[in-house]
Amino acid sequence: MAAVQINRALDFVRDAMREAGALWWRFFDWLALIEWRQLYLVWFLSFVAGLFVNLVEPAIWFILVSFGVKVLAGGKRRAELLARDASSKADVANLERRLTEAQMATLQAQVEPHFLFNTLALIGQLIETDPKEAARVHGHLIEYLRASLPQMRGAMGKGGTGGTLGKQVELSRAYLAIMQARMKERLQVRFEVPDFLGSAPFPPMMLQTLIENAIKHGLEPKVAGGTIVVRSRVEGATLHVDVLDDGVGFNLHAGSGVGLANIRERLALLYGKEAELVIEAPVTGGACVSIRLPYRMTEDG
Amino acid sequence: MPTALIADDEALMRDQLRARLHEAWPELRIVAEAANGVEAVALAAQHKPDIAFLDIRMPGMGGIDAARQLYADCHIVFATAYDQYAVEAFEHGAIDYLLKPVTLARLDTTVARLRRQLEHKPQDIGAQLARLAQLGDQLLGRAAPSSKPSYLRWIQAQSGTSLRMVATSEVLFFQSDDKYTRVQTATAQHLIRKTLKELEEALDPDEFWRIHRSTLVRVDAIAEVRRDLRGRQMLTLHGYPEALEVSRNHGALFQQM
Question: Which chain A residues are closer than 8 Å to B167 by Cβ?
Fold first, then answer.
């Protein structure tokens, strides 16, 4: 019986201590974070309250203790609390990042049905009139789909990077060869990509988006058609990949589209402020869109 | 002898349709071939065909816009590889269409229908075409002229010898300095000559808010609004370290939030 009572008493004491400890830490945190100006106000009020209820001495103790604690330990504790806050914010940012990446993956998943059906119709016609050309276009289409269908791309590396510039250029060549078969003399293409840049890491589907934009917004609406130039170079430690066209140029009142916003966001996620998407309107007309990111010679170099 | 015009920007697709038509309807004479809508309208005026086969997507002027100028004088048949929105509309309306690649069986149906229709005047499909044109514009993200005010979506900033294009969706805020207006994005800063007032008039008022005499902020970039010790409302933005002040005149924007 006695043992039970002692146990109860001990439990009570332990609970009380824990409660007091928690309260003390709360008070401590409050002290650490509160602005001095507000603290003065609290002191003044507690002193006045103390006068009224005849408890001046405890009020003075409170003021002295809180002053001491704030001066001696407040700064450190405050830094600690702010750091904890920041790290929890960083966790949230990290989560947001993963979420965004997931959204990206689905966004990237778009092979234009219009492109697909038109190309198939073209192949159908070529089979009858020019089987060799049909086989060529057919091969390019397979190459294009292999690289741009999300299921196929999954194997190449998850989410962000995992591609090389060479791979992306190859894909673009396939796509542009198909477009040339369709648009004939309305589309000229020029690649100015030095071979040694082929091994440089480059995120998937960005170059492709720029080229599709150049065709869709620049050249397709232009009756006479035009030229697309894909060029790449290293300036300092930065890899530049540009897509130029001499199409109809910018409509200042038409949105920039999901494609470019998507590239911008992915660049920010992958490289932070080290990468950039630069869009320019050359004086000669058309458009010039440039992806700039830190240059590395190979995947792990 | 019935006559027809074929319009498609892809030469091979014109070849295909011509060859199929020759099989399905040997008497039909193809009097003209066009590579875009403008050409189609011009050639139709010259050759007065009974029927016009029009691809929907063509550079310059598409098939639907061309049809709006032609339907009073000739029977219209559209051709498309994909435009789902149009195909759905055709199925519910009286407009005939062909899906590319054109099959002989499907073409036979169209030819039979055309043979019957040729005895009558072309039907009035103006209203349907107008609706389709509008639908197509929306789908392609083109601003439909006149129906809705179109807002500025690109900011042009001189940068050396070239003109930088900054999408408004990329801008965090505009701030007026003495002479220039500063355009701030997450990664860069540009100076432009447009005044804040000009910008405010040209931009979508739902996209950008005036929060201060000298500041126009993109609403989606706002992370938080809080009061500082002096009681001023301060805005923090996603991806930008400094806070922006909301002036008293504009404080009402953020009440009840």
Answer: 255-256, 260-261, 279
- Does residue A133 belong to the interface with chain B, where contact is any CB pair within 8 Å? no
Dmax (CA) for chain B in angstroms is 88
Residues of A in contact with B59 (CB under 8 A): 186, 220-223, 225
Query: pLDDT tens digits, residue range A107-141?
Result: 555 678 889 999 999 999 999 999 999 999 999 99
Interface test with A, best of B153, B155, B238 (most A CBs within 10 A): B153
Contact A124 B101 (CB under 8 A): yes
CB pairs under 8 A between A and B: 116
Enter the ipTM.
0.81
Query: Is this prediction's pTM over 0.80?
Result: no
Q: Which residue's structure tokens are 């355009």?
A: B183
Three-state SS at B180:
coil
- Compare CB distances from A268 to B10, B151, B186 and report the shortest one's residue: B186
Q: What is the CATH number of domain B3-139?
A: 3.40.50.2300
Q: What secondary structure letter does DSSP report for B158?
A: E
| CATH number for domain B154-254, candidates 2.60.40.2470, 2.40.50.1020, 2.40.10.270, 2.40.30.170 | 2.40.50.1020
Q: Which CATH class is domain A108-294?
A: alpha beta
